[in-house]
Amino acid sequence: MRSLASVAPGLAELRHYRWGDAPADVRAGLSVAAVAIPVAIAYAELAGFPAQVGLYSSILPLVAYAVFGSSRQLIVGPDAATCAVVAAAVAPLAGGDATTYASLSMTLAFLTGFICIAASFFRLGALADFLSKPILVGFLNGVALSIVLGQTGKILGFDVQATGIVPRLVEIVDKLDQTHIPTLALAAATFAVIVVVPLLCVWLPGALVGLVLAGVAVTAFGLASAGIKTLGVVPAGLPAITLPHVDPALLPTLLADAAGLALISFSSLMLTSRSFASKNGYEVDPDRDFAALGAANVASALSQGFAISGADSRTAVSDVSGGRTRAVGLVAAASLAIVLLFLTEPLQYVPNAALGAVLVVAGLSLVDVATVRLIYRIDRTEALLSVLATLGVVAVGAVNAILLAVVLALMRFIRLLSRPSIEILGKVDGFPGLHSLERHEAGQAIPGLLLFRFNAPITFFNAPYFKREVMNAADQAGPDLRHVVLDLLPIPSIDATGLLTMVEVVDALNARGIDLNAAGRATEWRLWMQARGFEEPRIRLFPTLRQAIRELSAGSTSPLP
């Protein structure tokens, strides 16, 4: 059982399912399905697929996550940002051929799943934290702009051929005189319904009500004859399990796209998963969820679907509806399967303009200006990174913007660790302990001592900076300086370059008649050196800064007890 729980925690939980939870789970599952139907159809359109493919991508992934995922609430399925990336990645390779497009998309989902599963084996769940909140918010803001502009043509009733945000915007402005008023009116009415219905009745899915009313209007008033386009016939039946086939020459490109898609979709999934886990008082396992996301994407690929991610809106519906266990996802999957088997005929009357309205609402829900403002108040540099991520989507598209987001994340990481904060410590009257002299004008250095704090590991990319700052601080301390004491507590590790640089610092200080000492982690460093056969260090190690001050101020040269 322990092995089953580690590989498939969902199965282990479902074996002991409490049937008292069934009424709440069934109600929540039906609510999730009611929201998932219009969203899946709309996102299929966004990704460049027929309506049924969105439903294909929503069934088996729900089952896979329910079995392998660590969150008891998370709902997975088509996601706006993921679909936008899929379309941007696959469309240039397909050359307009629908069969090739479908095969490439299935392969992309399969590769994304494979990368996620492989990453879980290497315990790379920490990648969920790799894209900082400012960068991820900025990326999603850019994707939101792309989605909204991508649906403008459907809402206004004309085709938009340009790709990219700026060219598309230029074409839309040039074609405004071609706006089809009945299509625009229907889209506006659907948009209003989607926005207003949840305000009047929280549990009623606005997207479903909007699409139903739009379909009824098209049928009752014969709006198709007025030039309003509809979905058309949606094939009934469940998808056949199929292995994707693709030209091997395209695999390197698809693999690179899949890696970026895995990072974005996993980061987004973990944001949703962690937020609901925090709200409801339980923990999630990032490594387990990496594998579960991979299994869900492989399941989507095998069922002729496209790449998926965590679905925050559908997870919220489950939470609000009282869903208690992962059985909610299974109920939702069964409901969607029933729709595919018996209820596809009414879908043919759904107007494209109404789907465009659903996607515009979804796109606008990704826009988060308030968080950017908050980030600006916290750190203007982080806010700049957020804006750059948004502009990256505008300038180079969603797929290339993933690479830009990764580069920005690396730049941020390197900046933080290559130039960490440095503090010179001393005593402040009225305050116990040691404090940064920079923050306390009344602070005083210990005579003859320089207490130096370097707030980061000492590694190859910040070792020269460490040496330069130590020597600069020694210069500023004056001619009476006899001892530099390095506080090791905020230095969790030192690599080979850092150790060799430390030797250089010892030599440079000794040439001036100054000794280098260290405080904190004394036992840890002695054991490390003994394990590697090193001799006693050329610096004195003290258990604490307080003891270093006491002994060095007294001029003691006796060994430590």
If you had to describe this structure to a student in words, what would you say it looks like?
Helix 5 packs antiparallel against helix 11 (251-280). The strands form two sheets. A six-stranded mixed beta sheet has the order 4-3-5-6-7-8, with helices on both faces. The protein has a two-stranded antiparallel ribbon with strand order 1-2. Helix 18 (463-477) links the parallel strand 5 and strand 6 (483-487). It is an alpha/beta fold. It starts with a helix and ends in an 8-residue tail after the last helix. It has helices spanning 2-7, 9-14, 22-47, 51-68, 80-94, 98-121, 133-156, 165-174, 181-200, 206-221, 251-280, 286-302, 312-320, 327-342, 352-366, 369-378, 380-418, 463-477, 496-510, 522-531, 545-553; strands spanning 76-77, 309-310, 422-428, 431-436, 449-454, 483-487, 515-519, 540-542.
Strand arrangement, major sheet: 4-3-5-6-7-8
Unreliable parts: 556-561
Q: End-to-end span in angstroms?
A: 51 Å
- Strand count, sense and closure of the main sheet? 6 strands, mixed
